[in-house]
Specification:
There is one protein chain. Helix 2 (about 75-90) crosses helix 4. The longest helix has 16 residues, at about 75-90. The strands form 2 sheets. This protein has a 5-stranded mixed β-sheet, sandwiched between helices. It has a two-stranded antiparallel ribbon with strand order 1-2. The protein is globular. The protein has one domain: Glutaredoxin (3-Layer(aba) Sandwich). With about 150 residues, it is of the alpha/beta class. It has 4 helices and 7 strands; from the N terminus they run E-E-E-H-E-H-E-H-E-E-H. The two termini are about 25 Å apart. Bound molecules: zinc ion (ZN).
């Protein structure tokens, strides 16, 4: 039986290699072929101007990006909730993009309010959700995306 292969960008700084892994290995702590570190960390990865487009465009694994800014109080309140959601959904990639620092990286996504979470798969936006949510609602929203 053939199984589908998924692209997954290594979340570790200084690596960010694009890995190709069988879908059924997502739950088996896959490791990066280049740096040997865990590909799925159950923690939000921090995106920047160099990594954002690559992670969003290459990842076939469901990827949730939290667009936030340092001056946005609801964003700061949601940060620990987003971390808790990441811990509960270890086969989903959670990532954060600080829009006031990384304006170039954020520009293509037309973020109108903060915080906004955008769900991507295979380079396509599949959903977005504006406003701060508690972890339980983040988890429910991400699970609803399949
Ligand atoms: Zn790596």
């Amino acid at each position: 039986m053939s199984q589908s292969m998924l692209h997954l960008v290594c979340p570790h700084a200084g690596c960010h290699a694009t890995n190709r892994i069988p879908e059924n290995r997502l739950t088996q702590s896959p490791k990066c072929g280049r740096c040997q570190q865990a590909l799925l960390t159950a923690k939000p990865m921090v995106l920047n101007d160099l990594t954002t487009a690559k992670v969003i465009q290459k990842n076939d694994v469901l990827t949730i990006v939290d667009f936030w800014a340092i001056w946005c109080q609801p964003c700061l309140m949601m940060a620990p909730e987003f971390e808790q959601a990441a811990a509960q959904l270890p086969t989903v990639v959670f990532a954060k993009l600080q829009t006031d620092q990384m304006q170039e990286a954020a520009a293509p996504y037309n973020i109108r309010s903060l915080p906004t979470m955008v769900a991507f798969r295979g380079g396509n936006e599949i959903a977005r959700q504006s406003g701060a949510l508690p972890s339980s609602q983040i988890v429910r929203w991400v699970r609803s995306l399949g």
